[in-house]
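Sample entry as discussed:
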Amino acid sequence: MNPILTRRQFTKAIGGLAAACTLPLAAKAQATTAAAAGAQGSTAKRAFPIGFVWGTATAAYQVEGAVKVDGRGESIWDVYAHTPGRIVHGDTADVADDSYHRYPEDIALMRGLGVGAYRFSVAWPRIFPDGTGRPNAKGVDYYKRLVDALRTAGIEPYCTLYHWDLPEALQRKGGWQNRDTAKAFADYAGYMAGQLDGRVQHFMTMNEISTFIGNGYGSASMAPGLGLKGQALEQARHYALLGHGLAVQAIRAATHAKTRVGSAEGINAAMPAFDEPEHVAAARKAAVEENAGYLTAMHTGRYTDLYLKTLGADAPKFTTEEMRIIGSKTDFQGLNIYTGDYYIAADNERGYEAVPFPSSYPNMQSSWIQFAPGAIYWGPKLMAEALGISDIYITENGTSSTAAPDTQGRVLDTDRVMFLQQYLGELQRGIADGAPVRGYFLWSLLDNFEWSRGYSERFGITWVDFATQKRTPKLSSRFYHDVIAGNAI
């Protein structure tokens, strides 16, 4: 195996794909010409700001594999994936993309794309196999090698410290239902940030508290699959938020002053049903209240009155000090946006009403992704306005696709190209209208282990043959390459 795909080999691969597809390069030439001409004319209005960060994203459990290598401990997802009936086709992430060993090949793919940043996550069980105690030096060294290789390639590492792979040893003690887990997470986050200090400038505490609590603790669709209800569920959510706040403080204590700290959250991206002032105002209210248990609490240090009233007896128990910690100041906010929800003004206590999607509404392969490009326009704009957020990154955006290699080996994922073109167009429009979005991370660089869906849904712009681990850039890879090259749609 030759793990290194050089820039020339990558360019030849995607160039050959483009030629085979008779893909016109006019869009790239037009965007580049517009930028060089000083951003004049109609094409210039589609340009992104100078210095805009273009990246891709993955998560440790979804791509690394090597689950029993170099002292890594067991995670809740290892247990869940090996429980019969949990994952489509009985798939596991024991090997996944084998990025633990093949990361040089993946970095070469990123270099060929021209990305300037890579969002990855650290596997907590690789650092503390039992969640706490003595750190595992081999795990720490792996991430040091990864970020050093990224920097050598001219790619800025953006590190997420928790992307759902809780050490199983902590789950046996109650997981996020146990307040001690929040403290254990902060200890781990501070330690790892200190180890990567000087190598990594951007840290995210957690990825999508709303998802790993809602689907892992509130239902059985993700690890650990508990199906909690009522106050028990809300208390787990609160302790996860507390873990975020404690980690912010621990990271700041362990790193130099230039380190930037944030989180990545999957939001309810509120959109007005159409652009009329009363509906825009309603969507802005929805942005606050529909995210009250997560982002709103993190940026205000309090739960809204309406949120607590709605929960009633199920509301979490908390102290003033805990809320102060949860509201610890961050430097940026990552937003994971795939779809959104429509709202209209209403004469009720909330001042808004959600508009359900009719059965005829279009969605992508993953049924939960309703095609809603407006979400990436309104989501950042309204969250920034409502919560005073000054720096936002789109830390995930993308779609699954059923496109597979044809007889010539090409993966012509025109559905993903269409999705990205429309969403990026709306993102550019939002930035032009004042949304403080500083960068975009496409999900995902690779086809990977898609949680409970196993390998049945592919989100990558690179096709991965999981039997051979051969990587093949898709048509969407060429599209993204051209967007980055021209810094424009």
